[in-house]
Amino acid sequence: MALVSGAELLVRSLQVEGVGAMFAITDISFTPLSIAAEKAGMLVVAGRHESAQVHMADAWARATGVPALVVGGMGPGVANLLPGVVNAWIEGVPVVVVGTQRSSRVDQAIRRNRFQYTPQLELFRPVTKFAAAVPETRRLPEYLREAFRHALGGRPGPVYLELAPELLRDEVDEDANPVHDPALYRAVVGAPDPGAVERAAALLSAAARPVVLAGNGIHSAEASGELARFAEVTGAAVCTTPGARGAISELHPHAVGMANALLSPVMQEADVVVAVGTGIGEVVGYGQFPAWAGPGRQRLVHLDRDPLVIGVNRPVDVALVGDAGQGLRALTEAVGASALRNDGSWARQQAAGAQSVMAMMADSGLELDGSPVHPARLAAEFTRFLPEDALVCLDGGNSALWAHLALVVTRPRSLLWTGHFGHLGTGLPYAIGAKLACPDRPVFLFSGDGAFGFNLQELETAARVGAALVAVINCDYARAMEEQGMLDEVGRTIGVHTSVVRYDLVAQGLGCHGELVEAPEEIAPALERASASGRPAVVQVVVDHAANVSPPGLAEFLDMYSGATT
Length: 566
Description:
Blueprint: E1 3-5, H1 6-16, E2 21-24, H2 31-39, E3 43-45, H3 50-64, E4 69-72, H4 76-91, E5 96-100, H5 120-124, E6 130-133, H6 140-152, E7 159-163, H7 166-169, E8 171-173, H8 194-205, E9 210-214, H9 217-220, H10 224-234, E10 237-240, E11 255-258, H11 266-269, E12 272-276, E13 299-304, E14 318-321, H12 324-336, H13 345-366, H14 375-385, E15 391-395, H15 398-406, E16 415-416, H16 427-437, E17 443-448, H17 449-452, H18 458-465, E18 470-475, H19 480-490, H20 503-509, E19 513-517, H21 523-532, E20 537-542, H22 545-548, H23 554-562
Parallel strand pairs: 2-3, 2-4, 4-5, 5-7, 6-7, 9-10, 9-12, 10-11, 12-13, 13-14, 15-16, 15-17, 17-18, 18-20, 19-20
Antiparallel strand pairs: 1-8
């Protein structure tokens, strides 16, 4: 009989699923797991805050398509995981979370005032797809299999397993507790029903102005190639949800950019919309007028692998339950065999117009001189500097809006931000996780100074683990988005402005490269030096506060957020 520890059994179960990284701040309650993971060749990263560790794992999953492991120590450590888990849950990112809990061998007769105890399962159940306590060491593989079924089935999301520390130390018979290949316990979603595909193809064949709304499910299904092919065969224009930029190259002749009031009037003109891998939520107007066409003027085909999101926010004409890639392939074949009403000229015209507007906004930013730097100039300089294979992370309110106006995303899994939850402070951990997951890709962060301050301490983590990212701070020493909202509502601000902080010097003190930029002509040289430093780098750019308060698109966002529009 060969004995194996619970920690080793858990690591083997993770590795057959392809998990290659464990993010965890060292805690004696799970020391055997840290040792087993490192011994097995997994990357073990100890950050500075548990919530940031979840963001790193979140970025790892977004960049690679494979979940990472996050571990928290009982009580405070697990409690600190919660904000990151909530963000992953809203964003639909598969993260595997393990939390230790007070030992089951401690006398449970006296339950009050236990040290470092909190009802962890109750905290995580509402914000995970699966949450359970593992009762015995031998059942660790079983519970992990169940967790992965939930994390990767339907709409992806985080899962939580809780265990007492002794489960990691106890030994069980290796032969009696085998680790199975995922193909033996996880079903793969296939193509949609052929009859439904034929009905959808008939609508598309008769469409004059078809549009695809591509969501993050395109990334999950690795279906970017199928999306481009579908657009070319059907003549459809393609716009993406905010979280799905890069699902199709934004330079593709059918790409009209991100779905919003500023860049995608095509949603109002489309006679047939094919929504793929999206819940059609608030950020795209719920599929309702006035963001979309009025009642009776538009048909909807909704393709998603999770049947529970189809038809929720808008009734559908054809529901397609299946994998995004296989569903698009089936639709492409079905439509390609029929006579099309449109030749794609409308889509190409819309795409050319949208792309010219985006290019104009980026180019006009380069013409803005003067100090402090105009944020549009910073965003334009930043995007012009990016290498073709760059992986970009965004953080902050107005800073993200400025970046979106100049940024062109041409590859899948190349833009990471919280487009659905708007969780500030994710940017730096995202950049660290992305760089660790994709060490050969240049990783850049564009962040506001307020958002950057949430997890500033993780610069030390980046320096220690060798995550050579470049962080650009759009710095106006204020929370600009909140300022505009307060001024509009009450005519004054509270708690908006901060003191002057030299983030570049903080970066240097934490082992990173740091520079302060105060003139537009200094931006590009500073980015060159930061990229060449071979270390994590911070380029702090002081921008014009008055200009930063009102980026294009902010008014529409504030109206949506306050409920003024639907």
